UniProtKB/TrEMBL annotation:
<dbReference type="GO" id="GO:0006434">
    <property type="term" value="P:seryl-tRNA aminoacylation"/>
</dbReference>
<dbReference type="GO" id="GO:0016260">
    <property type="term" value="P:selenocysteine biosynthetic process"/>
</dbReference>
<keyword id="KW-0963">Cytoplasm</keyword>
<feature type="binding site">
    <location>
        <position position="269"/>
    </location>
    <ligand>
        <name>ATP</name>
    </ligand>
</feature>
<feature type="coiled-coil region">
    <location>
        <begin position="60"/>
        <end position="87"/>
    </location>
</feature>
<feature type="binding site">
    <location>
        <position position="373"/>
    </location>
    <ligand>
        <name>L-serine</name>
    </ligand>
</feature>
<feature type="binding site">
    <location>
        <position position="375"/>
    </location>
    <ligand>
        <name>L-serine</name>
    </ligand>
</feature>
<dbReference type="InterPro" id="IPR002314">
    <property type="entry name" value="aa-tRNA-synt_IIb"/>
</dbReference>
<keyword id="KW-0067">ATP-binding</keyword>
<dbReference type="InterPro" id="IPR006195">
    <property type="entry name" value="aa-tRNA-synth_II"/>
</dbReference>
<feature type="binding site">
    <location>
        <position position="222"/>
    </location>
    <ligand>
        <name>L-serine</name>
    </ligand>
</feature>
<feature type="binding site">
    <location>
        <begin position="222"/>
        <end position="224"/>
    </location>
    <ligand>
        <name>L-serine</name>
    </ligand>
</feature>
<feature type="domain" description="Aminoacyl-transfer RNA synthetases class-II family profile">
    <location>
        <begin position="167"/>
        <end position="399"/>
    </location>
</feature>
<dbReference type="InterPro" id="IPR033729">
    <property type="entry name" value="SerRS_core"/>
</dbReference>
<comment type="subunit">
    <text>Homodimer. The tRNA molecule binds across the dimer.</text>
</comment>
<feature type="binding site">
    <location>
        <begin position="269"/>
        <end position="272"/>
    </location>
    <ligand>
        <name>ATP</name>
    </ligand>
</feature>
<feature type="binding site">
    <location>
        <position position="276"/>
    </location>
    <ligand>
        <name>L-serine</name>
    </ligand>
</feature>
């Protein structure tokens, strides 16, 4: 959520941010609601002051009648203000974060900017996609997954399941060694957590609801939602910042907006495992911490030997909450292209304002923290490993750093 005073005092800044994002929002309607809200609040305060002054002395019968009418007017005005406040707050929740000045301008992913490339692509004459690798096919059950749960679900078996588990365990060990505290989080959250992290109301179509109207719980699409809500409504100690957390959870996404995309295989699915990092920081430290998180991701993929590139998302491709996002994309030789493996984002105070997460600054004032998140690894990184470590005979070598977890060196 943006600061309402910032919107009121600098509407041109907000309008530019909306234009840069190619985001459709009626800013004028919001400003009108704000004017009406402030005027009605001032009127209500005047009515209350009038009632208080009239109540100081013993009233006459005529004055009692006037006070009753005044109280009824106050009640009606309070109800009108409550309705207006609800509309205003709902509109505030629908404004995205302001892109940082360093974010490239553009409408979609074609305007994203490659910042860096790392790694030597494997020298394979005719690289296969992971689906076509003979050693993998017995252990990837697409048809059975579809019969059990529908499209975009699957089973992993035997060595492939162990390799996926090894990847997640290695990621957790790697991140906790960097000073991040491991959390086991809920995978069902209330609406307030999704509103607070900025995934509702705009992204509601992407989320699985559980027993709507009864439990009112939702399956997480990322553990960022549960971790960031961990400190909601809290005042943190400045000396304890930054606070660094990580979690490995299953994630669930309806993929409502991806019809026809990546329909072959398991690159885009409804359920997957993911290791996430979340940091709560002082505002002055957040941009430095973003770079640190990116560096951790780079070190992680270098340790796996996966060639990658860093990509700065343009304003039109940013997530709703993000002020800046850097993607790390891994090389898939079988597809001859880079694919997204993770994203590091600074949401500044956007989520903290919605979740009311604050700290006391050096002047003793209560300020909102900044929140950052970074996907270290998700299941699709397993697919990058399969394609980059494929051998001529169709088998797959296990990356050295994962062999102590798998206890085997080769699949197939």
């Amino acid at each position: 959520m943006l600061d309402s005073s910032l919107i009121r005092e600098h509407p041109e800044l907000i309008q530019k941010a909306l234009r840069d994002r190619a985001f459709d929002f009626d800013l004028r309607a919001l400003l009108t609601l704000d004017e009406e809200r402030r005027a009605l609040l001032q009127h209500l305060e005047g009515l209350r002051a009038d009632r208080n002054s009239r109540s100081k002395e013993k009233p006459s019968k005529a004055e009692i009648t006037r006070l009753k009418k005044l109280s009824e007017t106050i009640k009606q005005t309070e109800e009108k203000l409550a309705t207006l406040l609800s509309s205003y707050h709902d509109a505030l929740l629908r404004i995205p974060n302001i892109p940082d000045k360093s974010v490239p301008i553009g409408k979609d992913e074609t305007n994203n900017k490659v910042l860096k490339k790392w790694g030597k692509k494997p020298a394979l004459k005719k690289p296969l996609e992971y689906l076509d690798l003979p050693a993998i096919q017995p252990y990837l059950e697409l048809d059975r997954g579809a019969r059990t749960s529908g499209a975009r679900f699957y089973y992993l078996r035997g060595p492939l399941a162990l390799l996926e588990h090894a990847l997640m365990r290695y990621a957790v060990d790697f991140i906790t060694a960097k000073g991040f505290e491991l959390l086991v989080t809920p995978i069902l959250v209330q609406e307030s957590a999704l509103l607070g992290t900025g995934y509702f109301p705009n992204g509601k179509q992407e989320v699985y609801a559980v027993n709507p109207g009864q439990d009112n719980l939702y399956l997480i699409g990322t553990s960022e939602q549960a971790i960031t809500a961990f400190h909601q409504q809290e005042l943190l100690e400045a000396d304890d910042l930054p606070r660094r957390y990580t979690a490995c959870t299953p994630c669930f996404r309806r993929e409502a907006g991806s019809y026809g995309k990546d329909t072959r295989g398991i690159l885009r699915v409804h359920q997957f495992n993911k290791v996430e990092m979340v940091v709560f920081s002082k505002p002055d430290d957040s941009w430095k911490i973003l770079q640190e998180m990116i560096a951790i991701s780079e070190e992680f993929y270098q340790s796996l030997g996966i060639p990658y590139q860093l990509v700065a998302l343009c304003a039109g491709d940013l997530g709703f909450q993000s002020a800046k996002t850097i993607d790390i994309e891994g090389w898939f030789p079988g597809q001859a292209r880079y694919r997204e493996l993770g994203s590091a984002s600074n949401t500044t105070d956007f989520q903290a304002r919605r979740l009311n997460i604050r700290f006391k600054n050096t002047r003793g004032e209560k300020s909102f923290v900044h929140t950052l998140n970074n996907t270290v690894v998700a299941d699709r990184a397993l697919l990058a490993i399969l394609e980059n470590y494929q051998q001529k005979d169709g088998s797959v070598t296990v990356p050295t750093v994962l062999q102590k977890y798998t206890r085997f060196k080769k699949v197939g």
